Amino acid sequence: MSDGTDVASGTDVASGNGAGAGVPLTKFDDPHLRPYAKNPRRAEMLIGLLLLIGLAGFAAYGGLYWVGGQTQWEGVYGGVGFFAFGFGLSAWGKYLLPQGPFVEERHVLASSEPEVGAMAAAIEDRGKMVFRRRGFLGTILGAGAGVMGVVITFPLIRSLGPQPKKSLETTNWRPDAYLVDLDGKRVHRADLEVGGALTVFPEGFAGSSVDQTMLVRAESTDIVTLPGRETWGPRGYLAYSKMCTHAGCPVGLYQELTQQLLCPCHQSLFDVKTGANPVFGPAPRPLPQLPLKIDSRGFLLAQAGYDQPVGPGFWERS
User: Pairing between strand 260-263 and 253-255?
Assistant: First the structure.
């Protein structure tokens, strides 16, 4: 209910006084604009403590998550941070701000120039004092919000997995690296008959996805797939990266009759006797070929590593 008093102007509207310039303004120390708390200083300290606890909770959560952490404790620290920070903000709004309700009689909306100037001066002078008094809380609030903003990005960053670093450009294939199967057993020249195929890895890295290689025996005699690769296919053995150049799927099927490797994901076909040149499907480039040799005991080794990155062409090769 209105009591007939103009809060904005501090005059008695019912009496008609207050028209014209020089109207006294409401002060920031007026009772209805004071904080709700009976002891604002004590409320400030309590709210500051809550915000600090929230800040500590966020920091502890972020630190624990970054080092690998433990799920239950991450939940505890995160919960403490959000609860304390949210409770502190709610208490700030309830106990340190004017509560209202504010009622005023409607009068002529246009203010005179003196009234506008007086209000601007009051806000500039008294307003600065109000916010300066809450500066400590504002500092904690800003710090807590900043830490919270950083730590909530940790799951987005760390959950992507380890950084690829140079794994997209190089593999673990090295000169004189023995070919081994998934169990780590070295591959002998007598292990495959013509038409056979086997997934192999460099010795010491069995099971490594970036190193997986498809070994096929297309013939019983040496094969030259391309000029410059005269020694790469001894005794009919050919080795190609198993990562499809289209989307990185495993090229895991060998068709003996057509002597082609098939990627089952999108049906790309690669001709093994012409350097795994794609003859069908969306694959844009041949599979990288691994140069092979056979030692005196009959075991297969790599002459060198792949001469180009394996898998999809992230590096935009022309």
Answer: antiparallel
